[in-house]
# Entry
Amino acid sequence: MSKKKCIVFDLDDTLVYEVEFLKSAFVEISNFIAPLSSDLLCDKMIRWFQNRNNVFDELINLYPELVKDDLLLIYRNHKPSISLNHGAIEVLNHFVAKSYYIGLITDGRSVTQRNKLEALKIDGYFDKIIISEEFGAEKPSLNNFRVFYEFDAEEYFYVADNPKKDFIAPNSLGWTSICLTDKGQNIHKQNFDLPSEYLPKIEISSLDELLQIIK
# Structure
């Protein structure tokens, strides 16, 4: 029997702000480089990032003995200290209670994205998780979305944040695309000056608005 609705989420800057992961990685890296003055170094790294400097290049300028690949490994593989975006857990619990299918489509490395899900304690909410490195394709590939047709739901929704790549595929498949608008915290700034096929059908400012949209 069909569960009628399938709600698929993006991860970064949708269920969790990517900047939280970035700051968590900066803490880890600063502890590795300068354990006795890690707070000062971490603050400096955040300022570099805010000024749009390449943080890893700045670190190597400051500490020439460092190897960039080692820093990237810490960044990608560390166990992050992060928290869910406002309204996320309430929305997930609501859709579970409704017995709707819940999915995730996220671009990124397997270890990085899996560590985020483990830290957030939400991997058990999803009936299917598509991570680009594991799946072999990134958004906006239609295949990343078509795989959810195994659920044979009557309605499909995709909730994400980036008009450049997130909505063109689900739009072409007839899904309801929903964009969580940026409150100034997203790493990748939103651009809505795009052809109509790239744009979401609905915009929301908070995830808990989904409770009124997806009944």
About this structure: Residues 18-33 form the longest helix (16 residues). Residues 167 and 191 are 12 Å apart (CA to CA). The domain at 5-17+83-213 is CATH 3.40.50.1000 (Rossmann fold). The longest strand covers residues 101-106.
